[in-house]
Amino acid sequence: MASVPQDWHLEFFVDGKPVTNETTIYRGVHHDREDLDESSAKNVWSAVHTITFKRVPGPPPPEPSTLTPTTQAASEGDTLQIPASLDKDPTTSSIIRLLRVLHEMNATIDDILTDSKDTATITSEPLAQFINTKLTAKINRQLEEPLIVASDCLPSWSEDLARLFSFLFPFETRHLFLQSTAFGYSRAMMRWQNSQNGEDSRRDLRRDDRPFLGRLQRQKVRISRSRILDSALKVMELYGSSPSILEVEYFEEVGTGLGPTLEFYSTVSREFSKKKLKIWRDTDGSPGTEYAFGKRGLFPAPMSDEQAAQEIGKKQLNIFKVLGKFVARSMLDSRIIDISFNPAFFRTVKLVDQDLAKSLFMLKEFVNAKNAVEANKSLSPAHKIEAVQNITVHGAHVDDLGLDFTLPGYPAIELIPGGTDVPLTIENVDIYIERVIDMTLGSGVRRQVDAFRAGFSQVFPFSSLRAFTPSELVMLFGQAEEDWSIETLMDSIKADHGFNMDSRSVRNLLQTMSELDHQQRRDFLQFVTGSPKLPIGGFKSLTPIFTVVCRPSEHPYTPDDYLPSVMTCVNYLKLPDYSDLDVLKKRLSVAIKEGQGAFHLS
């Protein structure tokens, strides 16, 4: 693939005004006429617009932010600033600024009250209380217009609200905004066209005259199942940033299409989660387990400056970079991944390691007691020193803990130079807490997070995700819990070719599915769809729709002699018309166990 030249680039102008390379022609013309009166603005279709370009020495300019400078500053932490598009009415801007502060306080109330939980009890409001239905309707209306989306002409107020005040909108609207603004023209048009086709289908209409607006190329790759992580690293390096849809096949297997591709994403997800990579903080000390485990999900293992400079450290950082590209690629192609991230990966120590948090809270009691002594004006300096040395918590002095300045659980990482030989004392306990928190959540994981962000942004800008909360990002990446009740399944599944929803075997199947435990659900989905997780929205969001058809039997065999089979590319389950519920459960269980790990039918 040809690389972008670095010694020169092109600059474009619309009617004499410079525009970025990412700007569409219509957006350039439209923004040029925004400040004109209404009659002049209407002449956009009849006027002649001159586009010029010139070759300029030097590398291409960096990709511009989709936010205005004021918006960018606000997004990076200054909650008092507000973008120009929302600052025209002082009352309105004051209200939404206040709402942002209240929302942030409400969302982090547990952290705010960490030190005063014994004296204060405040229950946070549901975050849905902040959603504004009228603004949601307005932005949905904008996103339904294909010309606006295709030409990247969304009003600046809608972009700024969606990114900086995302709490005003439900998750579905923000997810639609992401798909419409960050995934490129072809995917935006395909999404719009699919939604129109869905509307036509619900109305029993057929529109063959509608033009096909978005066409995506497909990039097929063939990999080795025995070296799947190495293959994935190479595939992401070569094709991770490609605008084409990625399709995966396996050597010595004839299966092609959606099924093997979905299985690739789920299998590689598990490979990224393995302990042997030593990239994750592992709170499960069991040596026999293959995968890293965290009570709240996976979080990067800390890395010191010395470790980062070594070859193994560089390799681990590269894995995080490829992981970022892999996650972004899964979002771009609407593929389901199976990585259980900790929400703190995208946002306190309590979420990362609960045992460590308890220890730090106890040490914080020493700090609080020391501060109380030092603030006591009735004590002389000599008495203060004596009182500080006599501080105990739960009957123990801090020296009794036998700790030194190394990171708990990672003795090779020193919190200060020579930390192995520096004992924890009442004089330095506050410094110890600061360094542990920094190494756990700050400098110790910053390189890994930055590498993940860099890899992600090679596919589409990581800044596009600022509209989502950390918990929502975890859900986007495959940790959502879906409804498997019989009622939901009946509304989401189609019976065809010999079956209807009242057929005995279909009803037995629905009952069996509703009774599956967590692991059995994962195995069932892996068997039927190629992925152990459902997309956001559950069974209703499967494309194509999950369909159960009758598998015929041939004399002298009966349906009870056959196993169910699947077509993962179209989410088809071919189910024999079994004689009773028990037979269905047994035969389905055998099929699921024997049908994993390969695609031998095209």
Radius of gyration: 29 Å
Mind describing the biggest β-sheet?
Answer: 4 strands, mixed
Helix content: 40-55%
Shape annotation: globular
Strand order within the widest sheet?
8-9-11-10
Average pLDDT for all residues = 84
Number of strands: 11
Calculate the terminal CA-CA distance, rounded to whole Å. 30 Å
Strand content: 5-15%
Number of helices: 24
Structural class: alpha/beta
Q: What are the low-pLDDT stretches, counting only 5+ consecutive residues below 50? A: 64-79
Question: Could you describe the 3D structure shown?
Answer:
There is one protein chain. This protein is α/β, with parallel strands linked by helices and 602 residues long. Among the domains are: 8-57, no CATH class; 281-479, no CATH class; 480-594, Hect, E3 ligase catalytic domain (Hect, E3 ligase catalytic fold, 2-Layer Sandwich), CATH 3.30.2410.10. Helix content is 44%, strand content 8%. It is built from 24 helices and eleven strands. A four-stranded mixed sheet has the order 8-9-11-10. Strand 4, helix 11 and strand 5 (245-250) form a beta-alpha-beta unit. Helix 6 (133-143) runs parallel beside helix 9 (171-182) and helix 18 (429-441) runs parallel beside helix 19 (443-457). It is globular. The relative contact order is 0.08.
